[in-house]
Every structure is written in structure tokens, then in C-alpha cells.
């Protein structure tokens, strides 16, 4: 069996002669100098700036549910940081170079740029429709990106970390990835022909033999290990951190970072060598720097960058990317948040199986906020989650329609709140002392809601978005139970004591709803806006600093007391019809999902 053969040889080209200048440091002395620089710069982090990224998505096919999931996670982080008063930057976009895209454009009979522009627009349209509030949408063919990639390459070259070599081994075009023999297995294709596949992705691999440029990845193994050991929370959740540590226990081969131009024309040429095209992953990863303003003005943002990635691209982000950055003397990412995958009807989503969930169609069916809520409430980063329309309907009806919507509806109903105001709180009524009407469970609920912002903040920070939503949903249930327990509709509005207690019940419920509305903004911005507007909460009263729950209970004035409610009294979230009862729009979607 032939073994992959990757050899870094000294180039005899003009560029290499330039690098041989005695004035330039040797690769290893450059490394230790750069390592020191990286360590120093990561200490001076700007606490009030925040920069979050999604992967940039391949444009070989239309977006699917998984792409929307990554974007919505990042959007949630971005909105959360804005509410906390951070200056936040949020980048997403499309990865448009490389063999896979070149082949897809050829198959579509289009020139690559026209092909890419069309699909990139579809991603953008999806994100715009789903309230993904990116501040920068990057496309790799842009001039600013080309400039950043060329500069980045030149820095690595000048630091002696790239040299000419050749690669002989496996390559997966679908993953745009080089593989060792241990990462490759046997399979058969749809026509029964034996093929080799990547054990990790299942995608077909081909043997390739090429002259190209090689990055000295092997030189970074111990630095990467030190970085990870010194920053145990840099890759989250922890299970993925452990995976990367394990990878680094094994040999770290050098990495080919270019392809022959004759094979790959759709990409950025290696500076000073028009016969070679820069490897698409090196090109793509630099997008994060491009958006930060590299190579001119990236400092502010680069010190505070956090990446969201799917588990499929962990190696590229947790090994290649930090090694490139160390090589270029740049600080390493603050956090790499990794999430697992969505399957559909128990299977990996794929065009050939016909089970790809169209996120745009689903967000029209279940509403944008509904889809966002479902993905973040149900998506667990450490393990794969299965998507079905039925699960979406069930969850949204229970939590957004019945529980949250029902609570708002009850407390704002003219029967209970004829004046349509944020009613007054009566401390004497809300007490377990004489004359008071509360029971133990009421105070238990108060404590839970009072602590909720801190709980949610911790979960948001740790990417446990589902836990944050679970905690909010649990509190909403407690507030509903509070209203149910005291049945304000049975109280006599003509009796002054009863009236004070009735208003107090509504005031407390409104305060709970106000807290839920503020906390839910990063996840369901539309619903939160509706909820807070209905309660009469002004836009400048919706940030993290406004999360002071029930101030009247602590003897502090409540600015909302006595304020008229917002006039928009529509339903917060309309009930979705069950898929099993009636053949409706949702049912059609389900049939499409299961089509072979
Ligand atoms: O890998 N479930 O692009 P890509 C959840 N261009 N998330 C999923 C998913 C699923 N089933 N499928 C995809 C690339 N994703 C490169 C990235 S970055 C410098 C270059 C999400 O279009 C997830 O975030 O294949 C995954 O990592 C990403 O889409 C891969 O998108």
C-alpha cells in the first residue's frame, strides 16, 4: 500500500531566495518570538468589545437547517452582548473558493462567480429573514479578503513557516481535507463500485500527488498543547476540548497549503507563484481576520474573537487555525464554541436521502421566532439532535403559545385589568404576615425569578442556551401556577382589599413577564418585543441593567407602576396545528421531509 508522502523541500524559486536572507530569523527562533508576542497580547483584552463569528458556509448547495442553527447561536451571543452594553461585532458569510465549488459551478454550467453570487444571496436572504443580525457578511472573492489572505501568507512565508514541497496521499474534495491512511476506510458507492472514504465524514476520497507548498504544522504541536492546557475553557463544551487534546497526542504532520493551478483555478493565487492556488481552508479561515480589519486595523477586534463551529470542522479551527495564528504572531481565539449536528428523521441530512430540512420554508411555517426558539431550546451542543416537524409543533405550542402567551393573555385580559395599566403593588397584601395573602410557593417563585438573570447569564456565557431556555420556561410555569393558585378572576374588584390583592397578583405577574421578555430577547427578538411593548416597557428599559425584578417588594419605586399598557393586544404566539390531525401546510412540509 502506498503511504501518503508529504515532503517539505527547499525551493529554488525567487521567493525562496528572498527568504534565505541572513537578516531573517530562523523558523524556530521566529516561533518562540511569536509565541511570546501572542502570550502578551492575549493579556490586554478589551473587556467592552466582543467579536463573534460563524463558519463561512460553502455555496455548493442551498442553506440547510444546520447552517441556520450556527447562525442563530451566534446571533444569540451577539444580541446578548449588546444587551450587556458591549460593542459587539458579528460576522457570517460564505466560503466560495476551492475545488468543490469549482466543480459545483461547472456542473451547473455557470461561471464560478455568478454561481457563487446566486447561492450566497440565498444564505443572506435566509439570515435576513430569520433576524440574524450580523454586522458583516463576508464573501471570500471580495477584494478586502484577497488582500488579507495574501498578506497573511506573506507573513507565514517571511517567518519561514511555508516552503515548497509535495504531497502524495488522500484528499476529500467534499471536505476539502487531506487525510492520513488511518483516517480512510473502504466503502461502495451507489453503483456498487468499491471506493475509499473518510472515516469521519463518510465522503469519498481520492489519491492525489502534487507539487505544492507546505506549512510546518508539526513545529506547533507542543505550543498548541501548552495553549490548550493553559486555557481549559477555550474549547467548549469540554468533550470537544478532550478530543482536540487527544488529536495532539498523535503525530501532527505538516500541511499542504496550496493546490496546483492546473487543478484549481477558482481561488487566490500564491503570492509570487501564479502556478499555485492557496488551499481553501487557509483562505477561508483568514475571513475572521479580514472582517476584523486585517492587516491594518484588526487589533481591537482580534483580541476578543470567539468562534462558533460545528463539530465537523473542529480540527480546522482548533489545530490548523491556532497554528497559523501562532505562525503569524497573532493572538489566539478567546473561545471556540462547538456544536453537534441536526439529523432529520433519525438520519444525517443529505440531498441523496432527500431529508434536507429547508430552514427558510420551516421558518415560514413555524415563524422565525418559533424556529429560533426550537433550535436553541432543543439543540444540545454535546450531542446530535433529531429534527421532526412534530417536535417543533409540540414544543412551541406548549412553551410559547400556552405557557408564555397564555400568561400574558390572562394578565392583560380586560376582565382582570379593565384599566389596561401596569397595576399597583401592595406590600401588605404580598406578605405572609397578618393581612397578607401569600403562601410559601409564592416566595419560592419570587426567589427563582430574582435569581433567573444570573442563571441565564451563566448559561448564555457557557453556550448552554438550552439550559437558559429551560430555566426561563420553568419560571414561566411557576408564574402560571401562581396566578392559578390565587385565581384573581374570583376576587371582588368592588372590595378594596380584594382589589389591592388582585392588582398585586397582576403586578407580580407583569414583573415576571418583563424579566422573561428581557432575557428572551437574544433568542426570540420578535416575541420579546411584542411582549415588552404590550407591558409598556420602553426600548431603553430593555437591557441587562433593567433586570431588577419587583423593586416594589424591596421598597424601591417601580417606574412602570400605573403606566398604560401598550395598545397592541394581539396573540403573542398563535397555536400551530398538530401535524397528525389535519393535512395543512405543515403536513406537506413533513411529507417533503420524509421523501426518499
Ligand atoms: O465547512 N447540523 O462549510 P459548510 C448542525 N466552508 N450544523 C451544521 C450541520 C448540521 N447537520 N451541517 C452543517 C464549511 N452545519 C466551511 C467552513 S469556516 C472558516 C469554513 C453547520 O457549508 C456547522 O456549523 O460545510 C458546520 O460546521 C458548518 O455548517 C459547515 O458548513
Key features?
596 residues; alpha/beta; 20 helices; disordered N terminus; binds ligand ME8
Polypeptide structure, described:
With about 600 residues, the chain is an alpha/beta fold. The protein has helices at about 15-20, 25-45, 65-85, 100-110, 110-130, 145-160, 220-230, 240-250, 280-285, 285-290, 300, 315-330, 360-365, 370-380, 390-410, 440-460, 465-485, 495-520, 525-535, 585-595, and strands at about 5-10, 50-55, 55-60, 85-95, 135-140, 160-170, 175-180, 185-190, 195-200, 205-215, 235, 255, 260, 270, 275-280, 305-310, 335-340, 340-345, 345-350, 385. Strands 2, 3, 4, 5, 11, 16 and 17 form a seven-stranded parallel beta sheet that branches. Strands 1, 6, 7, 10 and 12 form a five-stranded antiparallel beta sheet that branches. Helix 15 packs antiparallel against helix 18. It is elongated, with a radius of gyration of 28 Å. The model is unreliable at about 1-45 and about 580-595 (pLDDT under 50). Bound molecules: ligand ME8. Ligand ME8 binds near residues 55, 56, 309 and 313. Ligand ME8 binds near residues 55, 310 and 349.
Amino acid at each position: 500500500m502506498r503511504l501518503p508522502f508529504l515532503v517539505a523541500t527547499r525551493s529554488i524559486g525567487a521567493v525562496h531566495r528572498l527568504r534565505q536572507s541572513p537578516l531573517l530569523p530562523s523558523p524556530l527562533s521566529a516561533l518562540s518570538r511569536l509565541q511570546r508576542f501572542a502570550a502578551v497580547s492575549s493579556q490586554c483584552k478589551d473587556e467592552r468589545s466582543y467579536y463573534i463569528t460563524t463558519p463561512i458556509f460553502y455555496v455548493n448547495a442551498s442553506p440547510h437547517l444546520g447552517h441556520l442553527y450556527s447562525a442563530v447561536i451566534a446571533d444569540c451571543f451577539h444580541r446578548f452582548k449588546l444587551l450587556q452594553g458591549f460593542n459587539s461585532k458579528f460576522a457570517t458569510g460564505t466560503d466560495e473558493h476551492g475545488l468543490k465549488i469549482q466543480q459545483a459551478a461547472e456542473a451547473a454550467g455557470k461561471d464560478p462567480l455568478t454561481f457563487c453570487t446566486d447561492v450566497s444571496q440565498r444564505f443572506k436572504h435566509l439570515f435576513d429573514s430569520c433576524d440574524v443580525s450580523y454586522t458583516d457578511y463576508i464573501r471570500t472573492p471580495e477584494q478586502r479578503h484577497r488582500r488579507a489572505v495574501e498578506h497573511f501568507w506573506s507573513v507565514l512565508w517571511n517567518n519561514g513557516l511555508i516552503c515548497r514541497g509535495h504531497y502524495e496521499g488522500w484528499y476529500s474534495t467534499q471536505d476539502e481535507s487531506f487525510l492520513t491512511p488511518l483516517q480512510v476506510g473502504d466503502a461502495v458507492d451507489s453503483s456498487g463500485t468499491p471506493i475509499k472514504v473518510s472515516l469521519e465524514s463518510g465522503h469519498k476520497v481520492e489519491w492525489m500527488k502534487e507539487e505544492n507548498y507546505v506549512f510546518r504544522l508539526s513545529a506547533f504541536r507542543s505550543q498548541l498543547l501548552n495553549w490548550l492546557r493553559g486555557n481549559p475553557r477555550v474549547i467548549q463544551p469540554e468533550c470537544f476540548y478532550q478530543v482536540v487534546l487527544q488529536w495532539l497526542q498523535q503525530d501532527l504532520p505538516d500541511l499542504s497549503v496550496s493546490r496546483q493551478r492546473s487543478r484549481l483555478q477558482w481561488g487566490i493565487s500564491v503570492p509570487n507563484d501564479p502556478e499555485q492556488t492557496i488551499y481553501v481552508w487557509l483562505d477561508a479561515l483568514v475571513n475572521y481576520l479580514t472582517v476584523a480589519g486585517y492587516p491594518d486595523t484588526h487589533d481591537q477586534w482580534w483580541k476578543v474573537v470567539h468562534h462558533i463551529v460545528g463539530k465537523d470542522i473542529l480540527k480546522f479551527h482548533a489545530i490548523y487555525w491556532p497554528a497559523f495564528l501562532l505562525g503569524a504572531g497573532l493572538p489566539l481565539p478567546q473561545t471556540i464554541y462547538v456544536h453537534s449536528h441536526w439529523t432529520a428523521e433519525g438520519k444525517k441530512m443529505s440531498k441523496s436521502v432527500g431529508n434536507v430540512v429547508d430552514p427558510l420554508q420551516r421558518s415560514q411555517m413555524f415563524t422565525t421566532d418559533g424556529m429560533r426558539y426550537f433550535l436553541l431550546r432543543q439543540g444540545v451542543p454535546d450531542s446530535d439532535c433529531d429534527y421532526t416537524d412534530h417536535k417543533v409543533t409540540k414544543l412551541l405550542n406548549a412553551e410559547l403559545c400556552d405557557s408564555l402567551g397564555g400568561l400574558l393573555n390572562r394578565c392583560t385580559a380586560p376582565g382582570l385589568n379593565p384599566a389596561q395599566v401596569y397595576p399597583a403593588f401592595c406590600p401588605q397584601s404580598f406578605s405572609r404576615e397578618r393581612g397578607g395573602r401569600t403562601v410559601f410557593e409564592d416566595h419560592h417563585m419570587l426567589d427563582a425569578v430574582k435569581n433567573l438573570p444570573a442563571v441565564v447569564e451563566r448559561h448564555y456565557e457557557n453556550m448552554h442556551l438550552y439550559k437558559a431556555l429551560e430555566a426561563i420556561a420553568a419560571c414561566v410555569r411557576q408564574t402560571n401556577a401562581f396566578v392559578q393558585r390565587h385565581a384573581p378572576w374570583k376576587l371582588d374588584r368592588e372590595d378594596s382589599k380584594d382589589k389591592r390583592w388582585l392588582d398585586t397578583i397582576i403586578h407580580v405577574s407583569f414583573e415576571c413577564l418583563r424579566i422573561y421578555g428581557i432575557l428572551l430577547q437574544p433568542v426570540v427578538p420578535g416575541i420579546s418585543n411584542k411582549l415588552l411593548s404590550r407591558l409598556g416597557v420602553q426600548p431603553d428599559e430593555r437591557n441587562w441593567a433593567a433586570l431588577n425584578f419587583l423593586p416594589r417588594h424591596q421598597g424601591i419605586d417601580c417606574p412602570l407602576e400605573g403606566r398604560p399598557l401598550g395598545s397592541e393586544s394581539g396573540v403573542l404566539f398563535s397555536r400551530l396545528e398538530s401535524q397528525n390531525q389535519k393535512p395543512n401546510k405543515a403536513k406537506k412540509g413533513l411529507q417533503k421531509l420524509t421523501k426518499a
